[in-house]
Amino acid sequence: MKAGIVVFPGINRERDMAIALETSSGVKPRMIWHKETDLSGLDLVVLPGGFSYGDYLRCGAMAARSPVMGAIRAHAERGGFILGVCNGFQILTEAGLLPGALLRNASLRFLSMDCHLRVERSDTVFTARYQKQRTFRAVMAHGDGNYFADTAALDRLEGEGLVAFRYASETGDVTPVTNRNGSARSIAGIYSPNLRVLGMMPHPEDLVDPLMGCADGKPLFDALVGAA
Amino acid sequence: MKAIVTVMLKNGVLDPQGKAIGHALGTLGFTGVGMVRAGKIIELELAQTDPVKAKAEAEDMARKLLANTVIESFQVSIDG
Amino acid sequence: MKAIVTVMLKNGVLDPQGKAIGHALGTLGFTGVGMVRAGKIIELELAQTDPVKAKAEAEDMARKLLANTVIESFQVSIDG
Amino acid sequence: MEVNQALARSFGLNAEEYSRVLDIMGRTPTLTELGVFSVMWSEHCSYKSSRVWLKQLPTTAPWVIHGPGENAGVVDIGDGLAAIFKMESHNHPSFIEPYQGAATGVGGILRDVFTMGARPVANLNALRFGNPSLPRTRRIVDGVVRGIGGYGNCVGVPTVGGEINFHPAYDGNPLVNAMTVGIASKDKIFLSAAAGIGNPVVYVGSKTGRDGIHGATMASAEFGADSEEKRPTVQVGDPFIEKLLIEACLELMATDAIVAIQDMGAAGLTSSSVEMAGKGGVGIEIDIDQVPARETGMTAYEFMLSESQERMLIILRPDREEMARAIFDKWELDFAVIGHLTDTGRIVVRHHGIVEADIPLAPLGDQAPLYTRPTTETPKQEKLNPARIEDRFGLTRALEHLVACPDLCSRSWVWDQYDSTVGGQTVKRPGAADAAIVKLEGLRRGLALTTDCTPRYCLADPEMGGAQAVAEAWRNLTAVGARPLAITDNMNFGNPEKPEIMGQFAAAIRGMAAACEALDFPVVSGNVSLYNETEGRAILPTPAIGGLGVLDDVSKAVGLALPPWLDIVLIGATKGWLGQSLWLREIAGREDGAPPPVDLTAERTNGDFVRTHILNGTIRACHDVSDGGILIAIAEMAMASGFGARLSAHPRDIPGHAFWFGEDQARYIVAVPDSVALIRLAETAGVPAVRLGTSGGQDLTLPDGGTISLAALKTAHERFFPSWMDGSEQEP
Ligand SMILES: Nc1ncnc2c1ncn2[C@@H]1O[C@H](COP(=O)(O)OP(=O)(O)O)[C@@H](O)[C@H]1O
Ligand SMILES: [Mg+2]
User: Fold this and answer.
1) For residue range D440-461, what is the model confidence (pLDDT) as tens digits?
2) How far apart are alpha carbons A19 and A32 in whole angstroms?
3) Count of structural domains within chain C
4) CA-proximal residue: ligand 1, atom 15 (nearest)
5) Annotated catalytic residue within A14, A34, A59, A86
6) Which of A202, D179, D366, D535 has the fewest CB atoms within 10 Å, counting from its CB?
7) Phi and psi (nearest 5°) for D706?
């Protein structure tokens, strides 16, 4: 799988993402400057975490309107894979590639801590190496991760099986306590209808090396790079 | 010509910031405070000198960037 | 009675957000956009029915909580 | 505005200093010139009260590449890499506007580090606040924490550690000391000495506004009616621009375009241009008309003194100007050639074609004031006899009380707001170990980082306190298995014109110097912040120490979480020292006595022993014994893992409360599978070691039979910050 990582001004987890992809694939991903418009040859486009444009106005708002987004939209329409993590997820919703929006955390504070994500389905290219309904550990680091969509949109997501992950306890219980940022229905990640675009708030890419005490994020990248 | 764009969360979208402000006002001893909503205001200096056109321009900016209409509504006013 | 508190950075205080918005509008092809300033707006529902008193109350809230008067200035308007 | 002695005084220059200015200039200086002298000769830039003392600090070791004098200290960490680090205060701005004060503090220290060619890899912060029961303290803590997070999270540098103390002495004067650590290739370190007559002087970053201009001028008559608008505005940070600036500078640094580079920190364009030219022994000419401005109508004086953030000054190779410009264009940052180097040895500033300043650089530097201010020794305090201090509380209640008190309770409310993992290299996050550990990308090698100081010890005995702060930093690095390499310091004190304060300063330096010497732990960078007083009341003397150590293989590091079913062993000698302990303050309600003595020989012997046995795999968890003593250390270890412990009786010759809560130095709690073997090894090495109990279970069982569940202990430990902050969820 040929992967590229989009670099928007202010993005800051593009290096983490590159390390994670390289750890799984052995190949350095292509770094895509936000003004580039040719993504041909890429199977996977990653929108990494960080603070594109300082998170000013709304997180992801300005990045979602940058030149590269046209090509990303076309890539999505071609059925290409897209992974948006944290700010990348916010950019995907701002660009309308995924439904809903990410609001300020309910606590109004930045949340930096580990969380457990319950895998809602394991038959996608992203989650093939996880087990359905089991959890894995990921790093939360965001101020605006509170997923919002109106009831109809939420019902549709659920009905079509497009919820990727929910915030849960280690054993998989989804409760208000595990839903630290206040997301609607504890949603931590969602898919596009063709299951090829995934947006998620927590960072699997920061836990891919056992030296960090946990490599729970690695199966996601292993599955992805093995898929195509 | 100055355009003022006011962006508020739509009704039905949770506004934790408004809620927190309401709570904090209560803690400070202010009584009789009902619902509190927090929003954004963006002041733009425009070269455009025709107020009608300036308003249309600012509305376009709001639609394209300044507001996310999934969650927010906006209002534009023109000030001299 | 509704009070609307507008909070803006004082003149001369750097407004990184306004700057970034102005820049993004340029990228989107909007021309003739000069200075952009970003601020906050807080809408308060007050039990107070006397507009003069409501305004005074909201001003007090702004001073004590809603605005950081070291770097921000505020304005209160009362909306029937 | 007429330049005269009165104006000079309002700029902070005394009569003698002003007459020296007149001598150097041979005429009345212009307003801009006076501004340049006043900031260059300010305490902050000239170190005029502290320089004589700072000279006593050891600053060299085989692994030190650059000691104090550069923008940050540089040490060799192996594999061809260097760690570049420094700590800096932003105390006063954080009191005026906590969010922006702390945020710009972080921004400033980041620039000091990446200006030398390093990619910043970690931030730490040492914070001191006033009495928590004051609403103002709560507001300041909230703003400072949000500000540090707001800036650090956005620039994408993980905040991995720090410390927080409370004391009423900081009521009107909180301390915000920020530390940044970066990594560079050892042979690509960038320095600030300008060179090459004719070379362009380039300004990059944000535009200049009237931010933070010396408040003194505002008192003068010329700013009348609209003084509100011309007030010195608070500096506002733009972490987004800083992030772009880091990337752009690193991109330029990968080329051969840069001759010298320095951030515009305090006193902005003045200090950067004067220092760069001064160090290089060249002259510099600046054309203010070329300086990117954010506001209109600014004067040369304002341009030269502005402290607008996110700006750097670069001396470029002339043939690389276009290439450099292209890089800054790509990152959409301002890039302007604002002058060139000359052979005149003078700084010349032109604005609208008029010479606004023309100062010889050599005397500006050489004749800067230097004071050996009078000092008075802090009187020694009595050594307290623990047998004479009654324990009316018992161990269990004291423990419950202490783990919950502001100075010992969990800081997770704070660090949960700091991105500690960005970069993907954070091996030990806040709360996991005595020092944070950040791995180097692509290697097993890592850095251990800590900040330490116990101001109450420093007040009681500044010399001992200074030594203790260095020793504790060394110990915290050792406790994870790292080899301590060097420190940065941040000397926060009151008014140096008071002999007792200057005495504190001098004594703290003496203590620090002795500890640095004994532990091979030199000072490579630092910062001095004086005049930390409100209404004549000084803060506690606070020489904050930032320590850096290296681990060849981070997989060998240990944390403090107590694994189950191991023996708990105390390393180091215990006398039951209660003077200045937290037990004494929080339980007995007394803040007195001599602080615990620091035995540097024992410190070294014990620490070397512990490190050896961490690296060979014997020690599975380790925590140094500091605030609160042995029982607090064990409780922290238990809460970190969720496994309790059963503790056995203590030596009979020491009262229980003194043994368990005394703060004797040079001690560690370690967890090992076989205490008998470890104690035998310790005896051979001349290291005191005694078994204290066994880990396991869900309770902490104390030697007096008292039992407390970990759940209850944790609840008490975690209560303070969230409940204190409840109701302050307002945005900045
Ligand atoms: N201001 C802060 N920012 C980040 N981490 C902090 C801060 N204050 C304390 N910590 C972290 O909390 C933990 C405990 O701090 P402290 O009580 O000072 O430790 P010690 O006594 O072992 O030096 C450490 O991991 C420290 O890095
Ligand atoms: Mg410690």
Assistant:
1) 999 999 999 999 999 999 999 9
2) 15
3) 1
4) D163
5) A86
6) D535
7) -60, 145
Decide if D620 contacts D610 (C-beta within 8 A).
Answer: no
Centre of ligand 1 from the C-alpha of residue D434, in Å:
8
Task: Name the catalytic one among D90, D214, D650, D717.
Answer: D90
Q: Relative to the CA of D451, which ligand 1 atom is closest?
A: 23
Could you tell me which residues come within 8 angstroms of residue D317 by beta carbon, excluding any fewer than 6 positions away?
A: D196, D199, D256, D257, D258, D259
Work out the pLDDT band at D217, boundaries 50, 70, 90.
very low
| Structure tokens given for A224 | 């992805």
Residue A225: CA count within 13 A, CB half-sphere: 19
Residue A86 a catalytic site member: yes
D345: left (phi over 0), alpha (psi -120 to 50) or beta: left
Q: Retrieve residue C2's tokens.
A: 């509704």
Partners of B6 on chain C (C-beta within 8 Å) are: 41
Chain B with chain D: Cβ pairs closer than 8 A: 12
B23 Cα to chain D: minimum distance (Å): 7
Do residues D588 and D505 make contact, with C-beta atoms less than 8 angstroms apart? no
The residue with tokens 């051979």 is: D684
Q: What's at A73, amino acid-wise? A: R
**Cβ count within 10 A of residue D76:** 18
Q: Count the neighbouring beta carbons within 10 Å of the beta carbon of residue D652.
A: 8
Q: Which tens digits make up the pLDDT trace of A50-59? A: 999 999 999 9
Beta pairing partners, D503:
none
Q: Please list, residue by residue across A174-205, b when 16 or more beta carbons sit within 10 angstroms of its beta carbon and e when fewer do.
A: beeebbbbbbbbbbbbbbbeebbbbbbbbbbb
A199: helix, strand or coil: strand
| Chain-chain contact of D244 with A16 (C-beta, under 8 angstroms) | no
By Cβ distance, the residue of B16, B64, B66 closest to A104 is B16
Q: Which two tokens stand for residue D636?
A: 């922290």
Q: Which residue of A has its CA nearest to C24?
A: A62
What does DSSP assign to residue B4? E
Nearest listed ligand to the Cα of residue D450: 1
CATH, residue C64 = 3.30.1280.10
pLDDT digits (tens, 9 = 90+) for D68-118: 999 999 999 999 999 999 999 999 999 999 999 999 999 999 999 999 999
The secondary structure of residue D393, as a DSSP letter, is S
Q: Residue C70 is part of which domain span?
A: 2-79
pLDDT in tens, D334-366: 999 999 999 999 999 999 999 999 999 999 999
Cα A14 to ligand 1 centroid, rounded to whole Å = 28
Among residues A2, A7, A3, the alpha carbon closest in space to that of A68 is found at A7
* Residue D58 C-alpha from the chain's centroid: 18
| Residues of A at the B interface, defined by Cβ within 8 angstroms | 57-58, 61-62, 65, 93-94, 99-101, 103-108, 146, 148-150, 182
DSSP H or E run through D28: none
Which two tokens mark D18?
């002003």
Q: Is the pLDDT of residue D215 over 50?
A: no
- C-beta D164 within 6 A of ligand 1: yes
3-state secondary structure C4-42: EEEEEECCCCCCHHHHHHHHHHHHCCCCCEEEEEEEEEE
Kindly give, in sequence order, each residue whose CB lies less than 8 Å from that of residue D281, ignoring residues fewer than 6 positions away.
D345
The rounded distance, in Å, linking the Cα atoms of D318 and A204 is: 46
pTM (two decimals): 0.95
Alpha helices in A48-171 (DSSP H): 68-77, 87-94, 151-159
What is the value of ipTM here, to two decimals? 0.93
Q: What is the dihedral of CA D335, D337, D338, D343, to 10 degrees?
A: 140
Reference D245, options D292, D206, D290, D201; nearest CA is D206
Residue A82 · residue A39 · CB < 8 Å: no
Q: What Cα–Cα distance (Å) separates residue A11 from each residue in A7, A59, D349?
A: 6, 11, 38
